[in-house]
Amino acid sequence: MNPTPSPPPPMASPGAAFSAALAAEDFPWVENQEEMGMAPDKYREVFDLAQRGARAFRDRRFDEAISYYSKALNLRPGDPIILSNRSLAFSRISQRLRERSAADSEYQPLNGLDPTTHAELALKDAEKIISINSNSPRPYLLKAYALILLEHYHEAREALLAGLQVDPLSHVLQTCLSDLDRNTNIAAGARRARLDRTDDFECTLCFKLLYEPVTTPCGHSFCRSCLHQSMDHGNKCPMCRTVLFIGPRTYPISVTLSNIIQRNFPEEYAERRSEHETMTYAGVDLMPLFVMDVVLPCQKMALNIFEPRYRLMVRRIMEGNHRMGMVAIDSATGTVADCGCEVEILECEPLPDGRFYLEVEGSRRFRILRSWDQDGYRVAEVEWLQDIHLPEGSQERRELIELANGASELARAYIRRARETVRTARRTRHLDLESMPGPQDPEKFSFWLVNLISLRPSDRLDLLRLRDTRENF
């Protein structure tokens, strides 16, 4: 078995200090509402909506809080307190989605806006507050929080420094700035101690040496895979937000920049290449997992990949060996099943909205030795399962081949009768004699045969665990 790296230790989130420092503000009640430029009835309605939003926020019902704040802003546009609270609610949702584990998504998939969109909405509200009232440090803190969730760390630092110009003694701003500098320099610290180079050769998305660098029309350089992942959530440059009409996967690598990096930093570039090959699953013992259903060897299936975490996984697979593992939730334990099936992607069609249409076919069975989360989806180290081999020439082997030959004749007769009875191509598409394995490979043939009938997921999972081919017939 090829050696596989242990999952990397998690890095502390730079947004943690902001989340702890920021809370929803109370909307004030003013006795003389006309001084606020509003009719008393309208002001009371705004106050009531703001109070409901604050209660929802305290109960961590952030979507509901945003709804109340948005209704209040329709009645009182540009109110800095309500905008501030809505910006904070958007950021809290974004952080919650980013910190959500793969296991949570498997048991309770979510729909709605992705974390990047929520962070962009938070940033928009924060910038609007600064344009209205730039004399308070709070909007700068909100802006920095949103920028960190967008992974724009340099811009977040500039926002905090701008806030310190407004209030140089702000302990909250100083703490958040220190926390940001500490967390965003963890990965770069060891490297800078070993190599003396400028940030010109560093990807601003992953904070590592550029690998397969691409330079956008607006002049910014990123790792090709980093830009591809960023564009899962939008077609804008991560640095300047210019709309990009490019496809990162087919966009040409900057040959000159790549050659300079390889010539001047050969050891670190070799580390980056090794890391990239691991992430694209070039090996056979490290398996990305798609948690959905039980698939058997020889079974074909169409898949619609729409979740951002699985879009990233599919792109990495297509840059590697075109294979992934499919597993299901074991109904007996309520957790991911211990066995699954490797599938090969026969067809991959990217759709305009970012989804992928896949056609896959089951190939080999495996048992999960250990698994971990990686960028929101599961990765596992596996061992391959095979039926117990019966010695050539033995009585058991002869009986198994004879059993497989008999089953093969019955299967051929069944398929011929099915074709005569049902002429609709869609109904008979999977009843293909040409794809039927020969009985000389009883294990593979037995799984092909099982796919002719409909079984419950629990029964299919039991078949994956079997080690005696004779039990499949």
Automatic annotation (TrEMBL):
Key word Zinc-finger present: yes
Keyword terms, alphabetized: Metal-binding, TPR repeat, Zinc, Zinc-finger
UniProt xrefs under InterPro entries: Lon_prtase_N (IPR003111), Lon_prtase_N_sf (IPR046336), PUA-like_sf (IPR015947), TPR-like_helical_dom_sf (IPR011990), TPR_rpt (IPR019734), Znf_RING (IPR001841), Znf_RING/FYVE/PHD (IPR013083), Znf_RING_CS (IPR017907)
GO cellular component: cytoplasm
Signal peptide: none
Domain of life: Eukaryota
Domain Lon N-terminal, residue spans: 284-473
GO molecular function: zinc ion binding
UniProt repeat feature TPR, residue ranges: 46-79
Pfam families per UniProt: LON_substr_bdg, TPR_8, zf-C3HC4_2
The keyword Zinc is annotated on this UniProt entry: yes
Domain RING-type stretches: 203-241
Gene3D superfamilies (UniProt xref): LON domain-like (2.30.130.40), Tetratricopeptide repeat domain (1.25.40.10), Zinc/RING finger domain, C3HC4 (zinc finger) (3.30.40.10)
Entry protein name: LON peptidase N-terminal domain and RING finger protein 1
Species whose genome carries this gene: Urochloa decumbens
